[in-house]
Specification:
It is a single chain. By secondary structure, the protein is mostly helical. It has one domain (2-54). The protein is 89% helix and 0% strand. The chain contains two helices and no strands. The protein has helices at 2-27, 32-54. Helix 1 (2-27) runs antiparallel to helix 2 (32-54).
Length: 55
Amino acid sequence: MTKHISTLISALGVLVSVFLFAGAAREASPLWLPAGAAMVLIAVYALVRDLRRTS
């Protein structure tokens, strides 16, 4: 059950990071674009790791 909760939290993290990246892309700040992309990649990596552990 704990693994499923961790996966759910990771999925929410991906959702939040995508929204933050979209906001950074709208601002078009040179600092926020790479930071937003890094956040999305880290969140997706965590989600994939949790999905593999759940299976």
